[in-house]
Q: What sequence folds into this?
Protein backbone atom coordinates (compact mmCIF):
# COMPACT_ATOMS: atom_id res chain seq x y z
CA UNK A 1 0.00 0.00 0.00
CA UNK A 2 1.14 3.55 -0.52
CA UNK A 3 3.66 4.74 2.02
CA UNK A 4 1.75 7.91 2.40
CA UNK A 5 1.58 11.24 0.71
CA UNK A 6 4.41 12.65 2.79
CA UNK A 7 6.88 10.13 1.39
CA UNK A 8 5.72 10.78 -2.14
CA UNK A 9 6.28 14.49 -1.68
CA UNK A 10 9.63 14.11 0.03
CA UNK A 11 11.12 11.57 -2.40
CA UNK A 12 9.73 13.39 -5.38
CA UNK A 13 11.30 16.63 -4.23
CA UNK A 14 14.68 14.98 -3.69
CA UNK A 15 14.57 13.34 -7.11
CA UNK A 16 13.78 16.66 -8.73
CA UNK A 17 16.64 18.34 -6.92
CA UNK A 18 19.06 15.79 -8.35
CA UNK A 19 17.68 15.86 -11.88
CA UNK A 20 17.08 19.40 -12.99
CA UNK A 21 17.26 18.28 -16.63
CA UNK A 22 13.63 17.18 -16.34
CA UNK A 23 12.85 20.85 -16.99
CA UNK A 24 14.26 20.56 -20.52
CA UNK A 25 11.21 18.94 -22.20
CA UNK A 26 9.09 21.78 -20.84
CA UNK A 27 11.54 24.35 -22.13
CA UNK A 28 11.52 22.76 -25.58
CA UNK A 29 7.73 22.62 -25.45
CA UNK A 30 7.61 26.32 -24.64
CA UNK A 31 9.95 27.21 -27.50
CA UNK A 32 8.02 25.01 -29.94
CA UNK A 33 4.69 26.53 -28.89
CA UNK A 34 6.13 29.99 -29.28
CA UNK A 35 7.37 29.18 -32.80
CA UNK A 36 3.96 27.76 -33.63
CA UNK A 37 2.36 30.97 -32.43
CA UNK A 38 4.67 33.01 -34.66
CA UNK A 39 3.83 30.80 -37.64
CA UNK A 40 0.13 31.23 -36.89
CA UNK A 41 0.45 34.99 -36.71
CA UNK A 42 2.46 35.16 -39.93
CA UNK A 43 -0.01 32.96 -41.80
CA UNK A 44 -2.90 34.96 -40.36
CA UNK A 45 -1.32 38.15 -41.58
CA UNK A 46 -0.76 36.65 -45.03
CA UNK A 47 -4.32 35.35 -45.19
CA UNK A 48 -5.83 38.66 -44.26
CA UNK A 49 -3.17 40.99 -45.48
CA UNK A 50 -2.45 39.96 -49.04
CA UNK A 51 -5.98 40.36 -50.37
CA UNK A 52 -6.16 43.68 -48.50
CA UNK A 53 -2.98 44.87 -50.17
CA UNK A 54 -4.13 43.62 -53.51
CA UNK A 55 -7.38 45.45 -52.96
CA UNK A 56 -5.72 48.79 -52.69
CA UNK A 57 -3.13 48.31 -55.39
CA UNK A 58 -3.49 49.34 -58.99
CA UNK A 59 -4.63 45.86 -59.91
CA UNK A 60 -7.88 46.51 -58.14
CA UNK A 61 -8.79 49.29 -60.47
CA UNK A 62 -8.76 46.79 -63.32
CA UNK A 63 -11.20 44.43 -61.61
CA UNK A 64 -14.92 44.92 -61.41
CA UNK A 65 -16.59 45.75 -58.14
CA UNK A 66 -17.85 42.22 -57.55
CA UNK A 67 -14.34 40.83 -57.66
CA UNK A 68 -13.05 43.11 -54.97
CA UNK A 69 -11.94 41.53 -51.72
CA UNK A 70 -14.48 43.13 -49.45
CA UNK A 71 -17.49 41.11 -50.55
CA UNK A 72 -19.23 38.75 -48.11
CA UNK A 73 -18.28 35.57 -49.96
CA UNK A 74 -14.52 36.04 -49.78
CA UNK A 75 -14.79 37.34 -46.22
CA UNK A 76 -16.52 34.11 -45.25
CA UNK A 77 -13.91 32.07 -47.08
CA UNK A 78 -11.11 33.89 -45.31
CA UNK A 79 -12.87 33.44 -41.98
CA UNK A 80 -13.25 29.69 -42.55
CA UNK A 81 -9.64 29.43 -43.65
CA UNK A 82 -8.53 31.15 -40.45
CA UNK A 83 -10.54 28.71 -38.36
CA UNK A 84 -9.13 25.80 -40.32
CA UNK A 85 -5.64 27.16 -39.80
CA UNK A 86 -6.30 27.49 -36.09
CA UNK A 87 -7.57 23.93 -35.80
CA UNK A 88 -4.65 22.47 -37.76
CA UNK A 89 -2.12 24.39 -35.69
CA UNK A 90 -3.91 23.33 -32.52
CA UNK A 91 -3.52 19.70 -33.48
CA UNK A 92 0.15 20.24 -34.27
CA UNK A 93 0.53 21.92 -30.89
CA UNK A 94 -1.17 18.95 -29.20
CA UNK A 95 1.17 16.55 -30.96
CA UNK A 96 4.28 18.43 -29.89
CA UNK A 97 2.90 18.78 -26.37
CA UNK A 98 2.19 15.05 -26.16
CA UNK A 99 5.72 14.28 -27.30
CA UNK A 100 7.39 16.46 -24.70
CA UNK A 101 4.98 15.46 -21.94
CA UNK A 102 5.66 11.79 -22.65
CA UNK A 103 9.37 12.59 -22.65
CA UNK A 104 9.15 14.42 -19.34
CA UNK A 105 7.17 11.64 -17.66
CA UNK A 106 9.63 9.10 -19.04
CA UNK A 107 12.53 11.11 -17.62
CA UNK A 108 10.75 11.33 -14.28
CA UNK A 109 10.18 7.59 -14.26
CA UNK A 110 13.82 6.83 -15.00
CA UNK A 111 15.00 9.34 -12.43
CA UNK A 112 12.73 7.85 -9.77
CA UNK A 113 13.80 4.29 -10.58
CA UNK A 114 17.51 4.73 -11.15
CA UNK A 115 18.29 8.08 -9.57
CA UNK A 116 19.53 9.69 -12.78
CA UNK A 117 18.07 10.57 -16.13
CA UNK A 118 19.18 12.15 -19.38
CA UNK A 119 17.77 13.59 -22.59
CA UNK A 120 18.03 10.16 -24.23
CA UNK A 121 15.18 9.07 -21.99
CA UNK A 122 13.13 12.00 -23.20
CA UNK A 123 13.72 11.06 -26.83
CA UNK A 124 13.00 7.38 -26.39
CA UNK A 125 9.89 7.78 -24.25
CA UNK A 126 8.69 10.70 -26.33
CA UNK A 127 9.02 8.79 -29.56
CA UNK A 128 7.47 5.66 -28.11
CA UNK A 129 4.44 7.09 -26.34
CA UNK A 130 3.55 10.37 -27.96
CA UNK A 131 0.92 8.93 -30.30
CA UNK A 132 -0.95 7.11 -27.52
CA UNK A 133 -0.85 10.23 -25.38
CA UNK A 134 -2.04 12.33 -28.31
CA UNK A 135 -5.00 10.05 -28.97
CA UNK A 136 -5.89 9.94 -25.30
CA UNK A 137 -5.88 13.74 -25.21
CA UNK A 138 -8.11 13.84 -28.31
CA UNK A 139 -10.54 11.33 -26.81
CA UNK A 140 -10.74 13.28 -23.57
CA UNK A 141 -11.19 16.51 -25.49
CA UNK A 142 -14.05 15.08 -27.55
CA UNK A 143 -15.66 13.79 -24.37
CA UNK A 144 -15.41 17.16 -22.66
CA UNK A 145 -16.68 19.05 -25.72
CA UNK A 146 -19.68 16.77 -26.20
CA UNK A 147 -20.71 16.78 -22.56
CA UNK A 148 -19.83 20.44 -22.25
CA UNK A 149 -22.09 21.25 -25.17
CA UNK A 150 -25.00 19.55 -23.44
CA UNK A 151 -24.17 21.28 -20.16
CA UNK A 152 -24.02 24.69 -21.84
CA UNK A 153 -27.55 24.20 -23.08
CA UNK A 154 -28.73 23.09 -19.64
CA UNK A 155 -26.87 25.94 -18.00
CA UNK A 156 -28.77 28.43 -20.13
CA UNK A 157 -31.93 27.43 -18.27
CA UNK A 158 -30.70 26.53 -14.81
CA UNK A 159 -28.08 28.92 -13.54
CA UNK A 160 -25.87 26.29 -11.93
CA UNK A 161 -22.14 26.22 -12.73
CA UNK A 162 -22.31 22.70 -14.17
CA UNK A 163 -19.42 23.20 -16.54
CA UNK A 164 -17.00 24.29 -13.84
CA UNK A 165 -17.94 21.32 -11.67
CA UNK A 166 -17.77 18.94 -14.62
CA UNK A 167 -14.32 20.09 -15.74
CA UNK A 168 -13.03 19.91 -12.16
CA UNK A 169 -14.35 16.36 -11.75
CA UNK A 170 -12.92 15.19 -15.08
CA UNK A 171 -9.53 16.72 -14.23
CA UNK A 172 -9.39 14.86 -10.94
CA UNK A 173 -10.80 11.53 -12.10
CA UNK A 174 -8.49 11.34 -15.12
CA UNK A 175 -5.53 13.11 -13.51
CA UNK A 176 -3.33 10.02 -13.79
CA UNK A 177 -3.92 9.11 -17.43
CA UNK A 178 -0.65 10.45 -18.94
CA UNK A 179 1.25 8.58 -16.24
CA UNK A 180 -0.67 5.39 -16.86
CA UNK A 181 0.13 5.64 -20.56
CA UNK A 182 3.84 6.37 -20.22
CA UNK A 183 4.86 4.59 -17.02
CA UNK A 184 2.74 1.47 -17.45
CA UNK A 185 3.24 1.46 -21.22
CA UNK A 186 -0.47 1.35 -22.02
CA UNK A 187 -2.38 2.53 -25.05
CA UNK A 188 -4.68 5.51 -25.14
CA UNK A 189 -7.85 3.74 -24.05
CA UNK A 190 -5.99 1.46 -21.64
CA UNK A 191 -4.38 4.44 -19.99
CA UNK A 192 -7.68 6.29 -19.59
CA UNK A 193 -9.31 3.18 -18.14
CA UNK A 194 -6.40 2.56 -15.77
CA UNK A 195 -6.41 6.14 -14.49
CA UNK A 196 -10.17 5.91 -13.95
CA UNK A 197 -9.86 2.64 -12.01
CA UNK A 198 -7.01 3.97 -9.91
CA UNK A 199 -9.10 6.98 -8.99
CA UNK A 200 -12.06 4.81 -8.05
CA UNK A 201 -9.89 2.72 -5.75
CA UNK A 202 -7.97 5.62 -4.18
CA UNK A 203 -10.37 8.53 -4.27
CA UNK A 204 -9.10 10.28 -1.16
CA UNK A 205 -5.41 9.96 -2.09
CA UNK A 206 -5.84 11.20 -5.64
CA UNK A 207 -7.98 14.06 -4.44
CA UNK A 208 -5.43 14.93 -1.77
CA UNK A 209 -2.48 14.97 -4.17
CA UNK A 210 -4.46 16.87 -6.80
CA UNK A 211 -5.63 19.54 -4.38
CA UNK A 212 -2.23 19.84 -2.72
CA UNK A 213 -0.45 20.41 -6.02
CA UNK A 214 -3.11 22.85 -7.19
CA UNK A 215 -2.69 24.97 -4.06
CA UNK A 216 1.10 24.68 -4.06
CA UNK A 217 1.12 26.11 -7.54
CA UNK A 218 -1.24 28.88 -6.45
CA UNK A 219 0.88 29.71 -3.43
CA UNK A 220 4.02 29.85 -5.54
CA UNK A 221 2.33 32.13 -8.06
CA UNK A 222 1.16 34.36 -5.23
CA UNK A 223 4.70 34.37 -3.90
CA UNK A 224 6.01 35.38 -7.32
CA UNK A 225 3.42 38.11 -7.51
CA UNK A 226 4.39 39.47 -4.12
CA UNK A 227 8.04 39.33 -5.14
CA UNK A 228 7.21 41.31 -8.22
CA UNK A 229 5.67 43.92 -5.96
CA UNK A 230 9.10 44.38 -4.45
CA UNK A 231 10.49 45.04 -7.92
CA UNK A 232 7.57 47.33 -8.69
CA UNK A 233 8.20 49.37 -5.59
CA UNK A 234 11.86 49.64 -6.50
CA UNK A 235 10.81 50.89 -9.90
CA UNK A 236 8.44 53.40 -8.33
CA UNK A 237 11.44 55.06 -6.76
CA UNK A 238 12.51 56.19 -10.20
CA UNK A 239 9.16 57.58 -11.28
CA UNK A 240 8.83 61.30 -10.54
CA UNK A 241 5.71 61.36 -8.37
CA UNK A 242 4.53 64.85 -7.72
CA UNK A 243 1.39 66.58 -6.62
CA UNK A 244 2.17 69.70 -8.61
CA UNK A 245 -0.47 70.88 -11.06
CA UNK A 246 2.08 71.57 -13.76
CA UNK A 247 1.18 69.73 -16.94
CA UNK A 248 4.77 68.85 -17.79
CA UNK A 249 5.33 67.28 -14.39
CA UNK A 250 2.12 65.32 -14.61
CA UNK A 251 2.97 64.16 -18.13
CA UNK A 252 6.34 62.92 -16.94
CA UNK A 253 4.72 61.15 -14.04
CA UNK A 254 2.04 59.40 -16.05
CA UNK A 255 4.32 58.32 -18.85
CA UNK A 256 6.85 57.12 -16.29
CA UNK A 257 4.11 55.12 -14.56
CA UNK A 258 2.97 53.64 -17.86
CA UNK A 259 6.45 52.53 -18.78
CA UNK A 260 7.03 51.14 -15.32
CA UNK A 261 3.73 49.29 -15.40
CA UNK A 262 4.48 47.71 -18.76
CA UNK A 263 8.00 46.74 -17.70
CA UNK A 264 6.64 45.24 -14.47
CA UNK A 265 3.94 43.31 -16.34
CA UNK A 266 6.39 41.84 -18.79
CA UNK A 267 8.85 41.01 -16.04
CA UNK A 268 6.07 39.29 -14.06
CA UNK A 269 4.92 37.22 -17.02
CA UNK A 270 8.47 36.36 -17.93
CA UNK A 271 9.43 35.30 -14.41
CA UNK A 272 6.22 33.28 -13.99
CA UNK A 273 6.90 31.40 -17.20
CA UNK A 274 10.51 30.73 -16.24
CA UNK A 275 9.61 29.46 -12.78
CA UNK A 276 6.70 27.52 -14.23
CA UNK A 277 8.91 25.79 -16.77
CA UNK A 278 11.95 25.20 -14.62
CA UNK A 279 10.40 24.50 -11.25
CA UNK A 280 6.68 23.89 -11.14
CA UNK A 281 6.14 21.65 -14.17
CA UNK A 282 9.06 19.27 -13.55
CA UNK A 283 8.30 19.07 -9.83
CA UNK A 284 4.62 18.29 -10.28
CA UNK A 285 5.47 15.77 -13.00
CA UNK A 286 7.91 13.98 -10.70
CA UNK A 287 5.40 14.08 -7.85
CA UNK A 288 2.57 12.66 -9.93
CA UNK A 289 4.87 9.99 -11.40
CA UNK A 290 6.09 8.98 -7.95
CA UNK A 291 2.51 8.90 -6.70
CA UNK A 292 1.42 6.79 -9.67
CA UNK A 293 4.32 4.36 -9.26
CA UNK A 294 3.46 4.13 -5.58
CA UNK A 295 -0.18 3.28 -6.29
CA UNK A 296 0.63 0.62 -8.88
CA UNK A 297 3.43 -1.06 -6.99
CA UNK A 298 1.29 -3.08 -4.61
CA UNK B 1 4.67 5.24 14.45
CA UNK B 2 2.71 8.33 13.62
CA UNK B 3 -0.42 8.14 11.59
CA UNK B 4 -0.38 8.88 7.89
CA UNK B 5 -2.12 11.97 6.67
CA UNK B 6 -4.82 10.16 4.75
CA UNK B 7 -5.65 8.13 7.86
CA UNK B 8 -5.84 11.28 9.92
CA UNK B 9 -8.25 12.74 7.38
CA UNK B 10 -10.33 9.60 7.11
CA UNK B 11 -10.51 8.83 10.84
CA UNK B 12 -11.02 12.44 11.71
CA UNK B 13 -13.96 12.57 9.32
CA UNK B 14 -15.42 9.41 10.85
CA UNK B 15 -15.07 10.80 14.34
CA UNK B 16 -16.92 13.89 13.24
CA UNK B 17 -19.70 11.82 11.69
CA UNK B 18 -20.23 10.04 14.99
CA UNK B 19 -20.17 13.29 16.94
CA UNK B 20 -22.05 15.82 14.88
CA UNK B 21 -22.63 17.73 18.10
CA UNK B 22 -19.12 19.16 17.67
CA UNK B 23 -20.57 21.40 14.99
CA UNK B 24 -22.83 23.04 17.51
CA UNK B 25 -19.98 25.02 19.03
CA UNK B 26 -19.02 26.99 15.89
CA UNK B 27 -22.70 27.52 15.13
CA UNK B 28 -23.35 28.93 18.62
CA UNK B 29 -20.30 31.14 18.13
CA UNK B 30 -21.87 32.74 15.08
CA UNK B 31 -25.27 32.99 16.75
CA UNK B 32 -23.84 34.73 19.80
CA UNK B 33 -21.79 37.13 17.70
CA UNK B 34 -24.84 38.02 15.61
CA UNK B 35 -26.94 38.48 18.74
CA UNK B 36 -24.27 40.70 20.24
CA UNK B 37 -24.09 42.82 17.09
CA UNK B 38 -27.87 43.07 17.11
CA UNK B 39 -27.86 44.26 20.71
CA UNK B 40 -25.13 46.79 19.95
CA UNK B 41 -27.08 47.99 16.93
CA UNK B 42 -30.23 48.41 19.02
CA UNK B 43 -28.36 50.28 21.75
CA UNK B 44 -26.83 52.58 19.15
CA UNK B 45 -30.21 53.19 17.58
CA UNK B 46 -32.05 53.99 20.77
CA UNK B 47 -29.35 56.28 22.05
CA UNK B 48 -28.63 57.93 18.73
CA UNK B 49 -29.76 61.34 19.84
CA UNK B 50 -27.44 61.54 22.79
CA UNK B 51 -24.60 60.10 20.75
CA UNK B 52 -25.11 62.63 17.99
CA UNK B 53 -25.12 65.36 20.58
CA UNK B 54 -21.96 64.03 22.13
CA UNK B 55 -20.24 63.98 18.78
CA UNK B 56 -21.51 67.38 17.78
CA UNK B 57 -23.60 66.19 14.86
CA UNK B 58 -27.03 67.38 13.91
CA UNK B 59 -29.49 65.37 11.87
CA UNK B 60 -30.61 68.36 9.91
CA UNK B 61 -27.21 69.42 8.74
CA UNK B 62 -23.65 68.55 9.63
CA UNK B 63 -21.55 71.60 10.26
CA UNK B 64 -17.91 70.55 10.14
CA UNK B 65 -16.96 73.34 12.51
CA UNK B 66 -19.30 72.13 15.24
CA UNK B 67 -18.16 68.51 15.21
CA UNK B 68 -16.32 67.65 18.35
CA UNK B 69 -13.43 65.80 16.73
CA UNK B 70 -11.76 64.57 19.88
CA UNK B 71 -15.03 63.09 21.04
CA UNK B 72 -15.54 61.45 17.67
CA UNK B 73 -12.10 59.90 17.79
CA UNK B 74 -12.59 58.71 21.33
CA UNK B 75 -15.99 57.28 20.58
CA UNK B 76 -14.87 55.42 17.46
CA UNK B 77 -11.79 53.98 19.12
CA UNK B 78 -13.56 52.88 22.29
CA UNK B 79 -16.48 51.50 20.33
CA UNK B 80 -14.40 49.35 18.05
CA UNK B 81 -12.06 48.20 20.78
CA UNK B 82 -14.94 47.03 22.95
CA UNK B 83 -16.66 45.40 19.96
CA UNK B 84 -13.45 43.64 19.05
CA UNK B 85 -12.75 42.42 22.57
CA UNK B 86 -16.23 41.04 23.13
CA UNK B 87 -16.23 39.23 19.78
CA UNK B 88 -12.81 37.81 20.62
CA UNK B 89 -14.16 36.59 23.96
CA UNK B 90 -17.03 34.81 22.26
CA UNK B 91 -14.68 33.28 19.70
CA UNK B 92 -12.23 32.07 22.37
CA UNK B 93 -14.95 30.46 24.42
CA UNK B 94 -16.50 28.52 21.59
CA UNK B 95 -13.21 27.64 19.94
CA UNK B 96 -12.00 26.18 23.22
CA UNK B 97 -15.29 24.34 23.49
CA UNK B 98 -15.08 22.96 19.96
CA UNK B 99 -11.47 21.79 20.36
CA UNK B 100 -12.30 20.27 23.73
CA UNK B 101 -15.22 18.38 22.21
CA UNK B 102 -13.00 17.16 19.40
CA UNK B 103 -10.40 15.97 21.89
CA UNK B 104 -12.96 14.10 23.97
CA UNK B 105 -14.52 12.59 20.87
CA UNK B 106 -11.14 11.36 19.67
CA UNK B 107 -10.21 9.89 23.05
CA UNK B 108 -13.52 8.51 24.22
CA UNK B 109 -15.40 8.13 20.97
CA UNK B 110 -18.32 10.18 22.24
CA UNK B 111 -18.67 13.77 23.26
CA UNK B 112 -21.45 16.10 24.30
CA UNK B 113 -22.26 19.73 24.94
CA UNK B 114 -21.15 19.40 28.56
CA UNK B 115 -17.62 18.91 27.26
CA UNK B 116 -17.95 22.15 25.33
CA UNK B 117 -19.05 24.01 28.45
CA UNK B 118 -16.27 22.40 30.49
CA UNK B 119 -13.44 23.14 28.11
CA UNK B 120 -14.86 26.49 27.14
CA UNK B 121 -14.92 27.65 30.73
CA UNK B 122 -11.52 26.18 31.49
CA UNK B 123 -9.48 27.42 28.55
CA UNK B 124 -11.20 30.46 27.16
CA UNK B 125 -9.13 32.97 29.09
CA UNK B 126 -5.79 31.54 27.93
CA UNK B 127 -7.10 31.39 24.39
CA UNK B 128 -8.36 34.96 24.66
CA UNK B 129 -5.00 36.24 25.84
CA UNK B 130 -3.07 34.35 23.20
CA UNK B 131 -5.34 35.68 20.46
CA UNK B 132 -4.73 39.22 21.66
CA UNK B 133 -1.00 38.58 21.74
CA UNK B 134 -1.04 37.20 18.21
CA UNK B 135 -3.05 40.15 16.95
CA UNK B 136 -0.61 42.53 18.62
CA UNK B 137 2.31 40.74 16.99
CA UNK B 138 0.70 41.05 13.59
CA UNK B 139 -0.28 44.70 14.11
CA UNK B 140 3.15 45.65 15.40
CA UNK B 141 4.80 43.93 12.46
CA UNK B 142 2.50 45.73 10.05
CA UNK B 143 3.21 49.11 11.62
CA UNK B 144 6.94 48.45 11.38
CA UNK B 145 6.57 47.56 7.73
CA UNK B 146 4.64 50.74 6.97
CA UNK B 147 7.00 52.92 8.97
CA UNK B 148 9.41 53.77 6.12
CA UNK B 149 6.46 54.80 3.97
CA UNK B 150 5.13 56.96 6.75
CA UNK B 151 8.47 58.65 7.26
CA UNK B 152 8.87 59.43 3.60
CA UNK B 153 5.34 60.75 3.38
CA UNK B 154 6.00 62.97 6.34
CA UNK B 155 9.12 64.51 4.84
CA UNK B 156 7.23 64.76 1.58
CA UNK B 157 9.41 62.61 -0.68
CA UNK B 158 6.47 61.13 -2.51
CA UNK B 159 8.46 58.79 -4.78
CA UNK B 160 9.87 56.85 -1.92
CA UNK B 161 6.61 57.11 0.03
CA UNK B 162 4.60 55.43 -2.69
CA UNK B 163 7.34 52.90 -3.36
CA UNK B 164 7.57 51.93 0.28
CA UNK B 165 3.80 51.79 0.63
CA UNK B 166 3.57 49.22 -2.16
CA UNK B 167 6.43 47.30 -0.62
CA UNK B 168 4.96 47.61 2.84
CA UNK B 169 1.49 46.47 1.84
CA UNK B 170 2.70 43.39 -0.02
CA UNK B 171 5.11 42.42 2.74
CA UNK B 172 2.40 42.99 5.34
CA UNK B 173 0.03 40.76 3.41
CA UNK B 174 2.58 37.98 3.14
CA UNK B 175 3.53 38.43 6.80
CA UNK B 176 -0.08 38.26 8.05
CA UNK B 177 -0.94 35.21 5.96
CA UNK B 178 2.20 33.28 6.89
CA UNK B 179 1.89 34.12 10.57
CA UNK B 180 -1.78 33.16 10.71
CA UNK B 181 -1.05 29.79 9.13
CA UNK B 182 1.96 29.05 11.32
CA UNK B 183 0.07 29.88 14.49
CA UNK B 184 -2.96 27.67 13.81
CA UNK B 185 -1.71 24.88 16.14
CA UNK B 186 -1.45 27.35 19.02
CA UNK B 187 -5.15 27.05 19.97
CA UNK B 188 -4.79 23.27 19.91
CA UNK B 189 -1.67 23.38 22.03
CA UNK B 190 -3.53 25.47 24.62
CA UNK B 191 -6.66 23.34 24.80
CA UNK B 192 -5.37 19.82 24.12
CA UNK B 193 -2.11 20.09 26.06
CA UNK B 194 -3.70 22.28 28.73
CA UNK B 195 -1.11 25.04 28.48
CA UNK B 196 -1.22 28.71 29.29
CA UNK B 197 -1.08 31.52 26.76
CA UNK B 198 2.70 31.87 26.37
CA UNK B 199 3.50 28.17 26.65
CA UNK B 200 0.76 27.42 24.15
CA UNK B 201 2.13 30.02 21.75
CA UNK B 202 5.62 28.54 21.95
CA UNK B 203 4.39 24.95 21.70
CA UNK B 204 2.03 25.72 18.81
CA UNK B 205 4.74 27.48 16.86
CA UNK B 206 7.17 24.62 17.46
CA UNK B 207 4.53 22.09 16.48
CA UNK B 208 4.07 23.71 13.11
CA UNK B 209 7.82 23.92 12.49
CA UNK B 210 8.32 20.27 13.42
CA UNK B 211 5.37 19.05 11.35
CA UNK B 212 5.46 21.43 8.41
CA UNK B 213 4.33 19.02 5.71
CA UNK B 214 1.45 17.47 7.62
CA UNK B 215 0.26 20.87 8.82
CA UNK B 216 0.37 22.32 5.32
CA UNK B 217 -1.56 19.34 3.99
CA UNK B 218 -4.29 19.86 6.59
CA UNK B 219 -4.39 23.59 5.82
CA UNK B 220 -4.75 22.85 2.12
CA UNK B 221 -7.37 20.16 2.68
CA UNK B 222 -9.31 22.60 4.83
CA UNK B 223 -9.24 25.13 2.01
CA UNK B 224 -10.27 22.48 -0.50
CA UNK B 225 -13.17 21.46 1.74
CA UNK B 226 -14.28 25.06 1.97
CA UNK B 227 -14.03 25.39 -1.80
CA UNK B 228 -16.12 22.28 -2.46
CA UNK B 229 -18.66 23.50 0.05
CA UNK B 230 -18.83 26.85 -1.69
CA UNK B 231 -19.38 25.06 -5.00
CA UNK B 232 -22.18 22.95 -3.55
CA UNK B 233 -23.65 26.11 -2.11
CA UNK B 234 -23.55 27.77 -5.51
CA UNK B 235 -25.69 24.95 -6.83
CA UNK B 236 -28.24 25.26 -4.04
CA UNK B 237 -28.32 29.03 -4.35
CA UNK B 238 -29.03 28.86 -8.07
CA UNK B 239 -31.88 26.46 -7.48
CA UNK B 240 -33.29 28.75 -4.83
CA UNK B 241 -32.95 31.77 -7.08
CA UNK B 242 -35.42 30.10 -9.40
CA UNK B 243 -37.91 30.38 -6.58
CA UNK B 244 -36.97 34.01 -6.38
CA UNK B 245 -37.95 34.51 -9.96
CA UNK B 246 -41.45 33.29 -9.22
CA UNK B 247 -41.94 35.43 -6.13
CA UNK B 248 -39.84 38.55 -6.52
CA UNK B 249 -40.56 39.87 -3.03
CA UNK B 250 -39.50 36.65 -1.35
CA UNK B 251 -36.11 37.14 -2.92
CA UNK B 252 -35.24 40.20 -0.87
CA UNK B 253 -35.90 38.36 2.36
CA UNK B 254 -34.24 35.21 1.17
CA UNK B 255 -30.80 36.61 0.44
CA UNK B 256 -29.74 37.68 3.96
CA UNK B 257 -31.40 34.59 5.39
CA UNK B 258 -29.47 32.54 2.92
CA UNK B 259 -26.16 34.17 3.74
CA UNK B 260 -26.67 33.49 7.43
CA UNK B 261 -27.82 29.97 6.65
CA UNK B 262 -24.68 29.42 4.60
CA UNK B 263 -22.43 30.63 7.42
CA UNK B 264 -24.20 28.41 9.92
CA UNK B 265 -24.08 25.28 7.79
CA UNK B 266 -20.45 25.94 6.89
CA UNK B 267 -19.64 26.35 10.59
CA UNK B 268 -21.51 23.19 11.46
CA UNK B 269 -19.82 21.04 8.83
CA UNK B 270 -16.59 22.56 7.51
CA UNK B 271 -15.29 24.24 10.67
CA UNK B 272 -16.14 21.19 12.75
CA UNK B 273 -14.36 18.75 10.43
CA UNK B 274 -11.29 20.98 10.22
CA UNK B 275 -11.23 21.27 14.01
CA UNK B 276 -11.34 17.48 14.37
CA UNK B 277 -8.58 17.08 11.78
CA UNK B 278 -6.25 19.51 13.53
CA UNK B 279 -7.04 18.02 16.94
CA UNK B 280 -6.30 14.56 15.66
CA UNK B 281 -3.06 15.65 13.98
CA UNK B 282 -1.97 17.48 17.11
CA UNK B 283 -2.77 14.55 19.38
CA UNK B 284 -1.12 12.13 17.02
CA UNK B 285 2.13 14.05 16.67
CA UNK B 286 2.46 14.85 20.36
CA UNK B 287 2.16 11.26 21.42
CA UNK B 288 -1.43 11.15 22.59
CA UNK B 289 -2.79 8.39 20.41
CA UNK B 290 -6.37 9.16 19.44
CA UNK B 291 -8.72 6.28 19.01
CA UNK B 292 -9.21 4.68 15.66
CA UNK B 293 -12.77 3.93 14.88
CA UNK B 294 -14.29 1.43 15.44
CA UNK B 295 -12.26 0.12 18.37
CA UNK B 296 -8.66 -0.11 19.38
CA UNK B 297 -6.52 -0.65 22.45
CA UNK B 298 -7.72 1.95 24.95
CA UNK B 299 -5.71 5.12 24.92
CA UNK B 300 -3.28 5.61 27.79
CA UNK B 301 -3.75 9.31 28.39
CA UNK B 302 -6.20 10.08 31.12
CA UNK B 303 -9.12 12.18 29.94
CA UNK B 304 -10.05 15.24 31.91
CA UNK B 305 -12.77 14.21 34.28
CA UNK B 306 -15.78 16.36 34.85
CA UNK B 307 -15.51 16.61 38.58
CA UNK B 308 -18.84 15.54 40.01
CA UNK B 309 -19.88 17.20 43.20
CA UNK B 310 -19.71 14.55 45.90
CA UNK B 311 -22.91 13.59 47.58
CA UNK B 312 -23.15 15.05 51.04
CA UNK B 313 -22.58 12.43 53.61
CA UNK B 314 -25.33 12.25 56.12
CA UNK B 315 -24.00 11.17 59.38
A:
Amino acid sequence: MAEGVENVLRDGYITWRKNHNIALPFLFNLIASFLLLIIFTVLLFLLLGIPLILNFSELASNLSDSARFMNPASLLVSFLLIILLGVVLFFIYLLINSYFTAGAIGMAKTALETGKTSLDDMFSYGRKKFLSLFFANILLLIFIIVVGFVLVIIQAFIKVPFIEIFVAIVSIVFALFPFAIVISDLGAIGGLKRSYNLFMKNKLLVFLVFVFLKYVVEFISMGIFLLSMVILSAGLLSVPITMSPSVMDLAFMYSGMMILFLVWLFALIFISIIIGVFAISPLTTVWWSRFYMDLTKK
Amino acid sequence: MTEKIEDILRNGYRTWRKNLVIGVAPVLQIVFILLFLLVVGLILYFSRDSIMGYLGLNIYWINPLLINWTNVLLFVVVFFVILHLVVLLIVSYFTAGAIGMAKTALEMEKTSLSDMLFYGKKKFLSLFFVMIIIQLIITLGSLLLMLPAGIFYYINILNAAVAFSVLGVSLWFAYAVVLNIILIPVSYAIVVSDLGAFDGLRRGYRFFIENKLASLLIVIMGMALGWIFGLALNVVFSIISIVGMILPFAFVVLIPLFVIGYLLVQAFIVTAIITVWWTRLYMDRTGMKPREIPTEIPVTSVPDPETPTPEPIYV
Remarks:
- DSSP finds ten helices and no strands in chain B.
